[in-house]
Amino acid sequence: xxxxxxxxxxxxxxxxxxxxxxxxxxxxxxxxxxxxxxxxxxxxxxxxxxxxxxxxxxxxxxxxxxxxxxxxxxxxxxxxxxxxxxxxxxxxxxxxxxxxxxxxxxxxxxxxxxxxxxxxxxxxxxxxxxxxxxxxxxxxxxx
Amino acid sequence: xxxxxxxxxxxxxxxxxxxxxxxxxxxxxxxxxxxxxxxxxxxxxxxxxxxxxxxxxxxxxxxxxxxxxxxxxxxxxxxxxxxxxxxxxxxxxxxxxxxxxxxxxxxxxxxxxxxxxxxxxxxxxxxxxxxxxxxxxxxxxxx
DNA sequence: ATTGTAATTGAGACTCATTCTCAATTATAA
DNA sequence: TTATAATTGAGAATGAGTCTCAATTACAAT
Lengths: 143, 143
Ligand SMILES: [Mn+2]
Ligand SMILES: [Mn+2]
Ligand SMILES: [Zn+2]
Ligand SMILES: [Zn+2]
Description:
Two copies of one chain form a homodimer.
Chain A: H1 3-12, H2 19-30, H3 37-46, H4 53-66, E1 69-75, E2 78-83, E3 91-95, E4 101-104, H5 107-120, E5 123-134, H6 136-142
Parallel strand pairs in A: 3-5
Antiparallel strand pairs in A: 1-2, 3-4
The complex binds manganese (II) ion (MN) (2 copies) and zinc ion (2 copies).
The site of one zinc ion has 8 residues of chain A, from α6.
Chain A binds a DNA duplex (30 and 30 nucleotides) through α4.
């Protein structure tokens, strides 16, 4: 996503383009998988660019409201995000022990949801399925 | 759920029956809908019984591990629980137009989720499925 | 019933993600 | 260039949840 599109997005919200916001946008879109605000913040610092923690949190909220990224989960270790654009749909398993997040996709699951919607006259446009429990590693540790 | 069943549950975990734990159990089961730890804590205090915040958090964890209650969501205002015991599990459809929430249940959907977990070696203990879209009424209005 | 002891409790200190404050800075339109 | 409203950042504040540890209590063994 380039500067102009981003500027336009902000304009529509009555907000200004700033280098801090742009740096945060670029970093957020650089992740193929999941990321959290603190990691993003530290990586921005490491690369010499600068943006405060406050700006990171503020900008991630903006990006979420614009649909550029989405919240994947709120774990005991913080909020996890992922980019929305260019990412095919999938659902999540969340380990309540270590906070690990696994992704999965099931065509069957999607189809059944469509049928359920049809039956109830509901026009579904998106969904979130989060399965919570213990991942393989943490199951072993428990024993 | 009565004292004896609860005592047995705790026994199996090598834990003792205490009045604090029982008070917390009873309060947790008294909610038909959602509740959060702080509310539960304050209501226990108000009714003259006593149990500390620490015990509330500790006991809610125990109850969740026993499957008596489950985490519904982690929100910006904290963790939301609902009773499982004596309540049938269900999922939700949320109308983004009017905010209406429809409940549904699909045995098929549950089974498939179990299979997916098994395949990945994940021990699922609960899940949240929220389908967002337009309800029957709002679909008509749109036309 | 008494006793030994390991489990439990509670007050409050602590953690840590996130939000808030506000003076200094900056983007933007006039 | 200037006026000014938006934005920023350092650090303080908030708040949910966890941890500590001395005092208490459940309960099994006697
Ligand atoms: Mn994902
Ligand atoms: Mn439910
Ligand atoms: Zn795990
Ligand atoms: Zn509706």
